[in-house]
Amino acid sequence: MKFYSRFSELFQIIFILLSSNLVIAQYSQNDSALVRTTFLREFDKNIINEYLQSDNPAKVNAALFSISHSDDTTFVDSIIKLDFNKYGKNIAFALGQLGESKKSKEFLIRKLTDSTNQFQISTFKAIGKVGDSLTLVYLLRGIASEHIQNSNGFPYAIVNFYFRDIKNVKSIKYLEGKLSSYNGDEELFEILFAIYRIGPTKNMVPTLQYILGRPHKEKVILSLLGNFRKLKYFPNDVGLFNILVSAHSCRIRTEMANSACYFPFREDEEYGREEFGQYFSLLISVLDRNPNVTRTVAKAFRKIKLTENNNWVKTEIERYIWLSGIPDNYYSGLTENTKGELVISYASLSNIDVEIIINEYSNLIEPKFIYRLLEKNTSDWEFNLNYLKD
To answer: Whole-angstrom Cα distance, residue 296 to residue 279?
Structure first.
């Protein structure tokens, strides 16, 4: 009884959250039976079927979301009887979440070949979760022959197949080809998203670089930079580098910090300092001092390849650290997280003993960063132990 009482209290709390304006949900206070059977993972068919047969679209959608948590493919028969023109997006979602099913696969294939399908992207996403290797071959051939006229969303299907270990060389070739023949930023984003999830290849670099040099929506630029980050590469284009470092969007500058650390900085000190200076500007951006940007660049410093000719970069990082500890100057506005990450980057780029670095900077950074430095200091365990004891 005690357990039941506590469960009832918990259920009431969840119930309040679901009806709160702070939580966007598909349920209302009148849906307690559906919420209960979903929460208990009972998925009572009598309750759910009553919702599926309702004339109220909100109730039908609530049932579909409930079913999507069930892993029970016996619901497929009921789902595919619904009006796809009305509930197509949520029908596709529910079928995809239920996983492999011959009926789901055949139903979704029929919808993909229907030129009037308004939910093609959702349908492609779902079939990537329920189809098999032969399904992927069929889709590739269908799109190539234009038997499937609308290929919007196919890259999402490729990704979902891929993460179920269903791979096809022609899928990669399809994505590579579409990079040169995409139709607008929305389709380009789908392609870049798929390439990022699967993993870009070096032979894509020239095309990706060309696309990055053209005007695009923010999400496309972010995807391009993300792909370069995965490749551990940044184009040797100073003009493009400077434009993106100075981008108004803090999201672009944050992703730029993660990818531009792979820029081929010149070793010649005069030009190298100028290029590094642009990269360092992300740390003290006059645009908005965004903490996500500054922390990201502080962490990314440790990925920069240093040689004997550009060792001065370490001295520059050290200068920023010390300046950040002096009150009432431009650098003192750096967040605690940024300063801590700077010290860890400096330590990773230096051959200086961790003991010396901790003694110098322990008053400038929070303890959690000192503990991270100690974690990396496995050779001098005695110092670590004594420091923690103190």
So the answer is: 12
Using CA atoms, how far apart are residues 335 and 295, in angstroms rounded to an integer? 8
Residue 155: which residues within 8 A CB-CB, separation 6 or more?
Answer: 175, 178, 190, 191, 193, 194
Task: Look at residue 380 and tell me whether its pLDDT is greater than 90.
Answer: no
**Cβ within 8 Å of residue 327, ≥6 positions away:** none
Measured CA to CA, the distance from residue 239 to residue 243 in angstroms comes to 6
Q: Taking CA 39 as the corner, what is the angle to CA 37 and CA 42, rounded to the nearest 5 degrees? A: 40
Q: Which two tokens stand for residue 266?
A: 């010149």
Long-range Cβ contacts of 167-174 (<8 Å, 24+ apart): 168/133, 168/136, 168/137, 168/140, 170/140, 171/136, 171/140, 172/198, 172/201, 174/140, 174/143
46-85 in b/e form (b: 16+ CB < 10 A) is: ebbeebbeeeeeebbbbbbbbbbebeebebbebbbebebe
Other beta carbons within 10 Å of 301:
25
The tens digit of pLDDT for each residue in 8-60 reads 555 544 544 444 433 334 556 678 899 999 999 999 999 999 999 999 999 99
Q: What is the pLDDT of residues 199-255, one digit of tens each?
A: 999 999 999 999 999 999 999 999 999 999 999 999 999 889 989 988 889 899 999
Q: Quickly list H helices, 213-362.
A: 218-231, 238-245, 250-259, 269-280, 291-300, 312-324, 336-349, 354-361
Q: Structure pTM? A: 0.84
Instruction: Give the burial string for 190-211 (b: 16+ CB within 10 Å, else e).
Output: bbbbbbbbbebeeebeeebbeb
Q: Tell which residue, 258, 367, 256, 239, has the closest CA to residue 303.
A: 258
For every residue of 110-152, DSSP letters joined together read HHHT-TT-S-HHHHHHHHHHH--HHHHHHHHHHHHTTSS---T
C-alpha triplet 188, 189, 192: angle, nearest 5°:
85
- Whole-number pLDDT of residue 15: 46
Pair 256, 225: CB distance under 8 Å: yes
CA distance 320 to 194: 39
